[in-house]
Amino acid sequence: MTTIIPNFQINETTHIGIVALKVANLSKMRDFYTQIIGLTLLDQTEDSVALGTKNNVLLTLQKVEHPLPITRKTGLFHVAFLLPSRKDLGNTLIHYIESNAPLDGASDHGYSEALYLTDPEGNGIEVYRDKPRSEWDIREDGEIVGITIEMDAQGVVDTADRQQTHFPEGTTVGHVHLKVADLQKTEDFYTQVLGLNLTSNFGAQAKFFAAGSYHHHIGANIWMGQHTPPMAENDLGLAYYSFVVPDTAALSELKDHLTTLSVSFKTETTEQMSLYDPNGILIKISVETNR
């Protein structure tokens, strides 16, 4: 029987790094993310594209030669790009309106203001800015309460200076929201194995997890149903996502914890490892390169 170490916590500065998507039409997806969404093209080969801000890769696209028909599987619900300020969100919203971007909605979540879109291959996208922490609804037990109400779109637009249509430097992948097969197994993995904090419950349908005191780095839901199968190699959608830890000491501490739990992982390099969550989702964990 595995012995759980209940007080293990991943380093509080851990954050999301890169999200990788498997795509059918590489050029169409590249153009959508650069011309519409606001990412910058950083590198390109015949079968892959790297996108981000000028100095930081945030999203990679990997071409799948013979993709399987899209079916209900675990994987990506949305990737969420975190902008540095409300002004940047205003600039982005104006760009989306002028570009006839496929906006699905705009919400105020209490701790953030967010725009929602869907890419040409069905991957969800969130673009958001965080409100000051003083405005978050944080309860005594540490729960960070989220809401979903209409965003003050005019207020967001009024902050814009119309100086930028692409994401500015300082933009990151703030969080990743996943479609999962089993919420309890997902909670056990992200809290007890990876050492994230459970920051919020959305009934019996969704849970949110974070390193440190953030509102969430990972969202997980069963809105598409429970016990959905994992993605196959040729399925379109999420290839993997990554966490970034501050240094090799933090990575070693996590690896020691996983070894204690007899959790399987692969050491890619001295500064990167990978493992799968209970939903068959590949996670890469790397050491911060800008340290």
Summarize the structure.
The protein is α+β, with helices and mostly antiparallel strands. The protein has a single domain, classed as Roll (2,3-Dihydroxybiphenyl 1,2-Dioxygenase, domain 1), CATH 3.10.180.10.
* Unreliable sequence segments: none
Helical coverage, percent range: 10-25%
Class by alpha and beta content: alpha+beta
- The CATH class designation is Alpha Beta
Largest beta-sheet characterization: 9 strands, mixed
**What would CATH call the architecture?**
Roll
Cα shape = globular
Count, helices: 5
- Write out the CATH superfamily name: 2,3-Dihydroxybiphenyl 1,2-Dioxygenase, domain 1
Domain module tally: 1
Distance between the termini: 39 Å
Mean pLDDT: 95
How much strand content do the residues show?
35-45%
Multimer state: single chain
Structural commentary:
- With about 290 residues, the protein is an alpha+beta fold.
- The chain contains five helices and 19 strands.
- Strand 7 (about 110-120) and strand 8 (about 125-130) form a beta hairpin.
- It is globular, with a radius of gyration of 19 Å.
- InterPro entries: Glyas_Bleomycin-R_OHBP_Dase, Glyas_Fos-R_dOase_dom, Glyoxalase_1_CS, VOC_core.
Which descriptors apply to this entry?
lactoylglutathione lyase activity, 38% strand, 19% helix, 19 strands, VOC_core, VOC domain-containing protein, 291 residues, metal-binding, Glyoxalase_1_CS, nine-stranded mixed sheet, 5 helices, eight-stranded mixed sheet, globular, 2,3-Dihydroxybiphenyl 1,2-Dioxygenase, domain 1, alpha+beta
